[in-house]
Amino acid sequence: MADARVMKEKEQETEVNEAQIAVHWKEEQYFYPSAKFIGQAYLTDISGKVNVWEEGDHYVVQVTADDKENVKLSLGERKAHLATGSDVAIGDVVAALEDGSEPLVAPMAGKVEITDKAVIITPTKQSVLRYEIPGFKQMLVKDGDKVVAGQRLTNGSINLHDLMRLQGVEPTQRYIMNQILQIFAGQGQNIADKHLEIIVRQMFIQVGTPDEMRGRVNAVDMIFIGTSNELGQFESGLTAQWFGAVPAVVLGGLGTLLVTGLWAWNFPELRRAGERSQSAE
Question: For residue range 231-261, what is the model confidence (pLDDT) as tens digits?
Answer without folding.
Answer: 777 878 888 888 888 888 888 888 888 888 8
